[in-house]
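Hi,

I'm pasting everything inline rather than attaching a file, because the server keeps stripping attachments. The sequence lines come first, and each chain or strand is labelled.
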Amino acid sequence: MTLQIADRVNSFAESQTLGMAKLGRELASKGHKVINLSLGEPDFDTPLHIKEAAIQAIHDNYTHYTPVAGFIDLREAVCSKFSRENNLTFTPDQVVVSTGAKQSLMNVVLSIVNPGDEVVIPAPFWVSYASMVEFAGGKPVLIYAGIEQDFKVTAEQIEAHITPKTKLMMFSSPCNPSGSVYNRAEMEAIAAMLDKYPQVYVVSDEIYEHINYVGKHESLASFENLSNRAIVVNGVSKAFAMTGWRIGYIGAPKPIAAACEKLQGQFTSGTNSIAQRAAIAALSQSIEPTRQMCNTFHQRRNLVLELMKNIPGFKCNVPDGAFYVFPEVSDYFGTKYENTNIQTATDLSLFILEHAHVTTVTGEAFGSNNNLRLSYAAGEADLKEAFTKIEQALAKLK
Ligand code: PMP
Ligand code: GLU
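And the predicted assembly:
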């Protein structure tokens, strides 16, 4: 008898960011030099003072189960961070620490979305949002913004997709994959529009908060009228180069925080104790290493925009945050090289992997079928080499 995997696993797609990274590793294991511009993670090492806090935690025997929602002093550090950096007031019982912002998001979706509920998601959107909603039995309702509007949806566009079934909106700024940053006025218009729909909860995914080249980070949760239904999702992965430590957190209305705590009490018993101690150091000590990383990302953003000018048919906006460029590449659709026909962004991404040994992610993963996402969280030499190889590979397509 063959094993039938449960329908719920078959009901959503594999993560294409992780899938592409896996293909890149497989090619590298065959002895090829592969430049990874697929996975969105800082190439920097975790700052020393954070690593030392983790080593100290081991010596201090922080080796037991922690409270399910996270150590109280970590949740206090999160509250101080919200107050200091975002002017948001949360108490520790409104904070839940999880195994990455990814689990934070999944907890929130599972806590809010019932089967049949609609969730509005501005597109392009981060790869996992729609799958999470589908997993919960909800219906993702995508709202498209193209390059001509800097990949940012307007309040009017969102409103046109709200129905009595809408339960949640999943919003991110700075946005992955587009790098777009909503300004205060754009957010204010969205918050004002939501005033008419008090049944709609709002997830504000702020994981790229510190990788912002236009100044002060603005939070959708900071608008007074949303304070009783906004859930801020954040984490240490991007700001502190801590992707492998797996620490994310939410600040949420109490019933939602309690529901997330209950869920993860059954799923994970809470997150890793050593990583939690490290996160306290990250959130309560100097932000200077983060600023330096952001400056470097800014320089690389400028470099990549220059390098991209050499690639015919790549149309790009100027992303104001995160560490991705998201060019439109549809000029290549309908071209071919030998037996390979390029019909989609996925075809192009696989062609680039095969012929340039550079990993990228298809825009289809993010709801934008004409685009490719390239992460510039890589060293300058690698970026220059990657773009030269991409240019040479694409020149083969006629
Ligand atoms: N939100 C966005 C927009 C992301 O790009 C990511 C990817 N790191 C996450 C959430 C999840 O981050 P993590 O689980 O590493 O904290
Ligand atoms: N968030 C990163 C990305 O978009 C990491 C991969 C993932 O978690 O899916 O590439």
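The first strand starts at residue 35 and ends at 36.

If the labels don't parse on your end, tell me and I'll reformat.
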